[in-house]
Amino acid sequence: MRARSDGGVVQVRAGRLLADVTPLRECPPFRRLWAGTMLSNVGGALTTFAVPLQVWDVTRSPLAVGAVGIAQVVPLLAIGLFGGAVADTLDRRKLVMATTICAAAVSAALAAHAFADPRQVWPLYALVAVASAIGAVGTPARSTFIPNLLPADQLAAGLALNRISFQVMLTVGPALAGLITATPHLGLRACYLIDAASFAGSLYGVAGLPAQLSSGSVSRPGLRAVAEGVRFIRRSPLLAGAFLADLNATIFGLPVALFPAINAERFGGNPRTLGLFMTAIGVGGLISAMLSGPVGHITRQGWAMLCAVSVWGAAFAGFAVAPTLWLTLGLLAVAGAADTFTVVFRGTIVQQSTPDELRGRVTAADYVVGAGGGQIGNLEAGALGSLTSPAISALSGGLATIAGAVVIGIALPAFTRYRSRPRSPEPDSQPGALAAPQA
Predict the structure, then answer these.
(1) CA dihedral over 285, 426, 348, 152, signed as positive or negative
(2) How far lies 157's CA from each of 87, 293, 326, 343, in Å?
């Protein structure tokens, strides 16, 4: 039995809730990439948890925690788009392997600093900036692997599975980091060391891939190549709408810099409780990713993305005033669920709307928007939290996110009216298969 909404937004067949695992079953390179990336991401979550907590322990300042975002966003904005041009010029597989080795070295340096002089904050900012610069080159290249490994009708399924990997990281990583940090004789140093070792998983996933060369040609990764990618994005209301919706959500509605202060203010500052904050986001996102079957049947992806962004903002507004720990964690789980749908919609729009010869540059812009917006949002939340209070900062940011989604919907009607063409399910298809929308 099939149900269709009056607005033509979604088609759902009973029993098609579970995420499609066809890419894992039929594509061994994707399977290795997925498994190795998941392991490395869990290790990365330990460092993501440890750096803000170390800054908070030394400074007791939400603004200082938010400044970690500036250390990340400056190199990201400076070289992010050039990283995409590099990815369109070189063998993306070799590029990712090189940047992975460099990132592992940065995590090892963070561990060395934690052993040597953990009360010095400036080395943390410096190492975070170096890691961001490395990611600005390697992440866009890595993001091109999935559309090159999978057929078009499995792209949405592959992106949803990739999101499951990310949500496992958000679920397991912060909780594990909280336990490690609170354990005597381990602490932050162990988080950094485990992260450095976990990069072996990323190398395992990438090493077995075939060469990943662009189907087009870029003579050199300079300003002309970057400008070509920017012009392509500017000509596409669909890409512009997706990027603006994501910026709206991350700049206004991502109060991660406030988590240590809110945890200290309401729940006594226990690192285990702080770990539960990010774990709750991961649990919500993991559940929605596991039940992502209907996502492939959503036709009005722009409209649906704005709805998910609004839910994200509303959840964080509720988080700002939640009186109990369980309500706090529940609202964070709702935010995580909304984020999964937002990311899958945006990723599908970006990958299916971009030719391969421009994919590195457009994906780099996507990465700059997602990561850069999040770090600017951390700075904004931390600064406002220092001037007012953490609760006011989180509440106003959540409400501003909802208002921004409304404004984008009105200002870009082509984005909200856009309809993809979902693949019609085969009569004998297996339950749980995810149909990829065709742009």
Answers:
(1) positive
(2) 24, 8, 32, 13
The total number of structural domains in the chain stands at 1
In a domain? residue 8: no
Residue range of the domain that includes 364: 13-438
Residue range 192-204, pLDDT digits in tens: 999 999 999 999 9
234-289 pLDDT, tens per residue?
Answer: 888 889 899 999 999 999 988 888 898 898 888 888 888 888 887 888 888 888 88
Residue 181 and residue 187 in contact, taking contact as beta carbons nearer than 8 Å: yes
Task: Establish if 3 belongs to a structural domain.
Answer: no
CATH number of the domain to which 248 belongs: 1.20.1250.20
13 CA to centre of own chain = 29
Radius of gyration of the chain (CA): 21
Count other C-beta atoms under 10 Å from residue 249's C-beta.
31
* pLDDT value of residue 386: 86
Tell me the DSSP string of 220-277: -SSHHHHHHHHHHHHT-HHHHHHHHHHHHHHHHS--GGGHHHHHHHHHTT-HHHHHHH
- Can you tell me whether residue 159 is helix, strand or coil? helix
Structure tokens at 397: 């940011």
pLDDT, tens digit, 9 for 90 and up, residues 36-65: 999 999 999 999 999 998 998 888 887 888
Q: CA dihedral in degrees (134, 136, 140, 142; nearest 10)? A: 20
